[in-house]
Amino acid sequence: MEQSISAYKVQELPPPSLADRAKEARKLIIDMAATPTGCHIGGSLSVIDLLIAAYAKYGHDTHSSIILSKGHAAAGLYAALYVYGILPSNPAESYGKQGSLYTGHPNHKLPGIPFATGSLGHGVAYAAGWALAQKLRGTEGLGIAIGGDGELQEGLIWETAQIVQAQSLSNFIYIVDCNGGQNDGYVDDISPIRNLKERFEAFGFAVREIDGHQHDAIFDAITPDGEKPIAILARTIKGKGVAALEGNPDAHYAKIPANLAKRWKVSLS
Amino acid sequence: MTTATLSGRDAYKDELAKLAETEERIVCLEADLGGKNHPFQTRHPERFLNLGIAELAGVDIAAGLAEAGYVPFISTFAAFAALRAAESVKLSLGYMGKNVKLVAPYGGVSGGWFGTTHHALEDIAVIQSFQNIRIACPHGEEETRRVIREAAASTEPYYIRLSRNDAFESLARASASSCRELLVERGAVHGRAKLCLLSVGEQATELCKALTEQFESVVHAHACYVDSQSLKAYVEPLQSLADRFLVVEEHRATGGTASYLALIMPEHPVYSHNCGEQWPMYGGSHAEVLADLGFGLEPLRQQIQSLLGGSDDI
């Protein structure tokens, strides 16, 4: 059976390290924050290491699909796809502009983005559907969703988790970017997600807790165990890499001047 | 003349199970409302998935299956398909155009005594506003089977509105014709018709069949597809039939077929026999609930007579 997979998959990995790629991607995110529209910079910087590691490991696999469900981090997704050569043009050059496909939430008209996401929760279910298709087809392909911890407040997430359990989708991997923030402030101040590990375990997931900025740890964690779906609770820092933003709930969205962008890019460690 | 043997939703299940014999990409998804002894489950258990009571996730998962090359048919009652799962339908079927077929029994008030939570008098308005989704309201077993075949052969997303358990004698449609073609069920006896009844859905079509027999200057056309693209394609054949139109549709006036036809045929008066503005709060059979809403044989007869100026032929 032929698959309707777009011809966008990652080339064989060239020499640059994941750290180098992540640094390059962070610069692009900062550049997108310096456009006239600005961008969701905090969540893009928290999730970028997860994206970089996920595409390094599965971006070449036509049977696997990586879906960013926390679509407000579109700048992070565009940056990751660009540094891997999947997107042909620098997203920072036209992000948010009239006529540009680089919209503020992922645009499925772009290479490498099978689903438009941003209305929270849906991307997790799309990835579950992909995983179900691979199970039916008998491949070893994975459905990989990358979401946020604030996003866990959506009922659709748990509706999907129920189905993932019921359908025994051991090829489904759900990475949660636990940066602790959401649009209006801290997750803990708005609608805390307590006992998250236990919640996922109750839904039949194997849970792995990692540092969401350690590429080796992410790379290792994104591995199916053959029995259960995997939930990866990735502890991250909102605004990671820019001292002025790290841990600051106001870093959710920012529009910054060009000179500040230049300083932040220089300061990236 | 074909005779009725199955309701639309039973015809759907049987036809899909048949199609799946030769089309391995078809998968059948249910949301706990497919009933026991589902023929697809019996014949293709490996491709039958009851996802449980989870309509949003179900439609999104169908989109994931479609992206991977499958042709998912997912079914739940119209109220849940079009309203509860509305955002998933908007994004997956409308915006992204994923090849998902959404099959929605219990359209209109066919749920009868089950009450408003199980009725859908707004679904066509909602789905039509999403754009790019084919909307079919087949009548009877044969037309339902054809629509299912057309949906399976198409790469377009579909919303297929069915009723509950009523079975009707199928309309006589030429064997080679597509359900996208307007079907003229009965023409005016003496020259050009004074009024064209355009029926949408099973109950409406039955009413029009009954009344056209009584009005010699009225023609009855049946529309199976009512998405905006299909309605645009009907304009020319409709104009060849009459100058005035009365759309009979088990739906609200707002967002119904009559309202869109009126927009695209501004030079022609388009009237509507619909389910009005009240909530269907009472019990009863399908026909009785419709009657409570002012939708039925006698009110339609009066509306036709009024439009004809009391001069026609009853």
Describe this structure in words.
The complex is a heterodimer of chains A (269) and B (314). Chain A has 269 residues and is an alpha/beta fold. Helices cover 37% and strands 12% of the residues of chain A. Chain A has a single domain (18-266), classed as Thiamin diphosphate (ThDP)-binding fold, Pyr/PP domains (Rossmann fold), CATH 3.40.50.970. In chain A, the strands form two sheets. A five-stranded parallel β-sheet of chain A has the order 1-2-3-7-6, sandwiched between helices. In chain A, helix 1 (18-33) packs antiparallel against helix 9. Chain A is globular and about 50 Å long. Chain A starts with 17 loop residues before the first helix and ends with a helix. Mean pLDDT of chain A is 94; it is low at 1-6. Chain B has two domains: 8-161, Rossmann fold; 183-307, 3-Layer(aba) Sandwich (Rossmann fold). Chain B contains twelve helices and eleven strands. Chain B has helices spanning 8-19, 39-43, 55-67, 78-84, 86-95, 123-130, 140-153, 202-212, 228-239, 257-264, 286-292, 297-308; strands spanning 26-30, 48-50, 71-75, 101-104, 134-136, 158-161, 183-186, 195-200, 218-222, 245-249, 270-273. In chain B, the strands form two sheets. A six-stranded parallel β-sheet of chain B has the order 2-1-3-4-6-5, with helices on both faces. Chain B has a five-stranded mixed β-sheet with strand order 7-9-8-10-11, sandwiched between helices. Chain B is globular and about 60 Å long. The model of chain B has no long low-confidence stretch (mean pLDDT 95). The A-B interface holds A 1-5, 65, 108, 114-116, 119, 121-122, 125-134, 136-137, 143, 156, 159-160, 162-163, 166-167 and B 24-25, 27, 46-47, 49, 51-52, 54, 56-58, 60-70, 87-88, 91-92, 95-96. Chain A: Belongs to the transketolase family.
